[in-house]
Amino acid sequence: MTNKFGKTVKLLFIVLILILITYFVHKYGIENIRAEVQNFGIWAPLALFLLRSISIIIPALPSTAYSILSGTLLGFRNGLLLICLADLTSCSISFYLSRNYGRSLVRDIIGKDFITRVEDLSKKHFENNFFLMVGFLMTGLFDFVSYAIGLTKAPWKKFAPALIISILLSNPPIVALGAGLLDGSKKFIFIGLFGVFLLALVSSRLQTSLKIDNTKTYK
Prior knowledge:
The chain has helices at 3-28, 30-39, 43-57, 64-74, 76-110, 112-122, 130-137, 142-150, 156-180, 186-210. It has 219 residues and is mostly helical. It has one domain (3-210).
């Protein structure tokens, strides 16, 4: 899968998810859908957790759609909690795999088309700058960044707080969009759009300063 083809597939997947969400919301109503999700008990949140986690461990898969879907189906608070836990778990796994098994395993997991991006990130020396590390983990490249940091000498005790801060700052806007756009909550819509704007600004600044091809804006 080429980078261009992969980006197209991700975009189409996100668009498809949004179309399906809109269709079912208009057909059945958001409250009825959320009530049905609750009837599934732990299985619906568990499925979202696994899908989000897998999409991060294998960065070729789209992940943004699950943040939107989580906010739509579970509401803002529960949806945000689930996405944050999934990100914390999956990014930690990515860091662990990269740190303990090196480039060869990472290449087998993410594919040869994406290993160059990880290697490029690992050479930017942002592991020496905590705030720069947080900034990169807040961008759409966070899945690659987790692998990249594992290839550097940055210790876990430095990566973990940077990851937690980035998760708490970057996830709420996307989950808020999912929770607000389809049930008309102006508060969540405003939070989501404003947060997305800030994330795009951070991504743009990092891309310009370190000359990295960042076509992904959201987590």
